[in-house]
Design goal:
Layout lengths: L27 H5 L1 H6 L3 H14 L7 E3 H25 L9 H13 L13 E3 L19 H5 L2 H11 L3 H9 L13 H14 L2 H18 E2 L2 E2 L2 E2 L2 E5 L3 E3 L5 H8 L2 H18 L5 E3 L4 E3 L7 H13 L3 H16 L1 E2 L2 E2 L2 E3 L4 E2 L4 H6 L8 H15 L12 E3 L5 E3 L21 H7 L5 H4 L6 H7 L23 H4 L28 E5 L8 E5 L15 E7 L12 H4 L3 E5 L5 H10 L4 E5 L29 E4 L1 H14 L3 E5 L22 H8 L2
Parallel strand pairs: 18-19, 19-20, 20-21
Antiparallel strand pairs: 1-2, 3-4, 5-6, 7-8, 8-9, 10-11, 12-13, 14-15, 16-17, 16-22, 18-22
Helix pairs in contact: 4-5, 4-7, 5-7, 7-8, 9-10, 9-11, 11-12, 11-13, 12-13, 13-14, 13-16
């Protein structure tokens, strides 16, 4: 935590939800940044850090962690550091005491992650207890039924490297099986590193099956998702339909992947678009619209844009990309540097520091995070961008970067794989197409006699963010059916974008008195009562004799983190909004300004319910919330799903927001008349933003 100059210890700091799933009660930042020290030529510091990791880090902890994050940060960090330590030992100058301790730790961690793969599909559970596994009664996990594509598909590099370095085939076997059950419909959050690992697995392991599979996906991406310079997610089962009018910052990795593929023109186009966005907003916001306005304002110090900048400079030798890198360094120093590191920016529109979760803002305002990936990736890519090859202690071209920028030697492709065969099917291609997809074209072939080819491409997008120059992608079209009705049972929940959790716990000594949402319109007539959590701000429902009643209208955008598009429809009604992406108080202010008379927030974490999940009170944003006068309640996802289903099936649903259930007489007029929901495009956009 760079403002307080101390580390974050899980269980001793306010819970940040899913963000903390990478913390396993070990020195995460130490492990994640070991090989960074070698790249920076800090070899004495590296040897000292390895000693500390070997001496102090223990992996047998009773803690539930993310399989994905633990794999890329911890297992990848241990493997990358082992490769560096072994190289330095072989040179005979240092690390002579090293006896593969990091590899032994990596193997131990690999075995602790393996229980997550004990599924019929081969797809791993998203979480595992490092001591008790998954299905053990003490594990406190194993109930999850879904995962994201990247979470399941970003295992092959680390697990295959572990198998080939340790000689134990089981790791690579499980990682290969996990690749045989994926769905894909975008290139951003939740799926990004899956594509990256297919391409890099081919480079690292030399197995054509990974390249062939990547080429199938890449062809579909360029046909349906790519709208140069944009990359817009599409409907999985109808890929001609875009399902978003915004992009998330994680897609910034894609130009770098296109460089590895040898497809420079679209890489230059998309990178230039991203650079224009950073020039307008100082950093890449967590998400931005097709008009390059801020959609989610946070900047979490993500390194993907710097990564793509490095790859483009390596491919083109164009000094323009050095200037892009210089701008990244200058903005980090100007807007994110603090006494003990660099702090994430709460909102690029204001430049303020902040945490992405509400509870930290309120209770620990100075403990702003600097995630380990910043030191593991950002420092590597920027240092490599400005360094000459002769200044590096290793030949960087002998290694492939994992998604966390850990270094694995490409010589692993010459190591006998401990397992044979793969279930992935391939599609026959023509000889000409096969030649193209299995080779990387040179710049001279793509752009003969044109040393300024990159500038020529960039010039077309130079003023994307200028006044009146918004880029208009293909129109988003409404799909007149429910997504869930399209999905086969075996496909449900495979692709899920992980949004940042917004967690607000109440001190144990303070009792949380549950409120209720009571459905009173036909056919419910007060008999359907949903348990709801209260808020510490807004209208106090315990002082309202009859509660607050109104018709429910879903906010658009559903997260309500900005101006409300359907304010006319929402005025005078109770708004339904999704938790996450911004603070409760921010949502409440936007909805109050739109004319709502109350707000029901629904948890974005799938499977949460009032019976099993501890109830909590929603809190404000650290500033005065006296301006918020709306009644606010919170439903967990299962209770929220009941309300959404009622709204979908009956269109007009009237509810009472109450501190406790109210008995309604048969003749009592508790019914409200709600206006009809909009038709056509407005309803379409409200649906697609869910």
């Amino acid at each position: 935590m760079p403002l307080s100059c101390r580390g974050r210890v899980r269980g001793q700091e306010p819970n940040r939800g899913d963000i903390d799933d990478s913390l396993g009660k070990f020195s995460l930042t130490l492990i994640d940044t070991l090989d960074t020290l070698v790249v920076l030529n800090k070899l004495d510091e590296f040897e000292d850090a390895v000693r500390k990791a070997v001496t102090d880090v223990r992996l047998d902890n009773d803690v539930v962690v993310s399989v994905f994050e633990t794999n890329i940060r911890v297992l990848g960090g241990l493997l990358g550091a082992h490769v560096m330590a072994d190289l330095l030992r072989q040179r005979g100058e240092r690390m002579q005491w090293y006896r593969d301790e990091l590899l032994h730790m990596a193997k131990e961690l690999g075995h602790r992650l393996l229980p997550a793969f004990n599924t019929t599909s081969g797809l791993p559970y998203p979480k595992v207890n490092l001591r008790y596994g998954v299905l053990n009664p003490l594990s406190r996990t194993g109930t999850e039924s879904d995962t994201c594509t990247a979470c399941a598909g970003t295992m092959i590099l680390e697990f295959a490297a572990l198998s080939r370095l340790s000689g134990e085939a089981v790791f690579e076997e499980h990682a290969r099986k996990a690749l045989d059950g994926e769905l894909y419909s975008g290139v951003g959050a939740g799926i990004d590193s899956y594509y990256e690992y297919l391409m890099k697995a081919y480079i690292l392991l030399g197995d054509n099956v990974f390249l062939e599979r990547f080429n199938i996906h890449y062809s579909a991406i360029m046909k349906y998702i790519s709208q140069p310079p944009l990359l817009l997610n599409v409907h999985m089962h109808n890929p001609t339909v875009s399902v978003r009018s915004w992009m998330d910052s994680l897609l910034a990795f894609f130009p770098g992947l296109q460089v590895l593929r040898g497809d420079l023109k679209p890489a230059i186009e998309t990178h230039e678009m991203l650079y224009q966005v950073t020039k307008q907003h100082k950093f890449l916001p967590e998400a931005f619209t097709t008009e390059f306005r801020v959609h989610w304002g946070q900047h979490l110090l993500r390194p993907e844009f710097a990564e793509s900048t490095y790859y483009l400079y390596k491919a083109t030798a164009d000094p323009y990309y050095l200037r892009v890198g210089q701008s990244i360094v200058e903005k980090l120093n100007a807007y994110a540097r603090v006494p003990c590191g660099f702090a994430a920016v709460q909102d690029v529109r204001t430049g303020t520091y902040g945490s992405v979760d509400e509870i930290t803002v309120v209770m620990e305002a100075q403990h702003i995070s600097m995630d380990s990936f910043f030191l593991a990736e950002m420092f590597k890519y920027l240092y490599l961008l400005f360094s000459e090859k002769s200044q590096l202690p290793i030949d960087i071209d002998d290694y492939i970067f994992t998604t966390e920028a850990h270094l694995l030697p490409v010589s692993l492709s010459t190591t006998q794989p401990p397992c044979q065969g793969n279930n992935t099917e391939t599609v026959p291609v023509s000889q000409e197409e096969d030649l193209f997809t299995h080779s990387c074209p040179s710049i001279e072939t793509l752009f003969p006699n044109n040393p300024s080819f990159a500038k020529t491409i960039r010039d077309s997008y130079k003023y994307l963010t200028g006044v009146g120059r918004a880029f208009h992608p293909l129109p988003v079209r409404c799909v007149d059916f429910r997504v869930k009705s399209l999905m086969k049972p075996e496909h449900k929940g495979v692709y899920r974008v992980k949004l940042v959790a917004e967690v607000s716990h109440t001190p144990e000594e303070e009792e949380v008195v549950p409120h209720v949402v009571q459905l009173i319109s036909p056919p419910f007539l007060g008999r359907t009562v949903l348990t709801a959590g209260p808020a510490k701000f807004g209208m106090d429902l315990t002082k309202q004799e009859h509660g607050v009643k109104g018709s429910v209208v879903k906010a658009s955008p559903y997260t309500a983190c900005g101006p409300i598009d359907n304010a006319v429809e929402l005025k005078g009604h109770i708004a339904l909004a999704l938790r996450g992406d911004c603070m409760f108080a921010v949502k409440a202010r936007w909805l109050q300004e739109a004319g709502a008379i109350g707000v029901i927030f629904i948890d974005h974490r799938e499977g949460s319910n009032s019976k099993e999940t501890p109830l909590f009170q929603m809190v404000g944003d650290g500033d005065s919330t006296e301006d918020i006068t709306l009644p606010l309640v919170f439903l967990f996802s299962q209770e929220g799903a009941m309300l959404i289903t009622a709204l979908e099936e009956h269109h007009n649903v009237d509810v009472l927001l109450l501190p406790k259930e109210r008995q309604l007489g048969h003749g009592e007029d508790d019914m409200l008349t709600a206006p009809e929901k909009p038709r056509g495009e407005e309803q379409c956009f409200a649906f697609l933003r869910i």
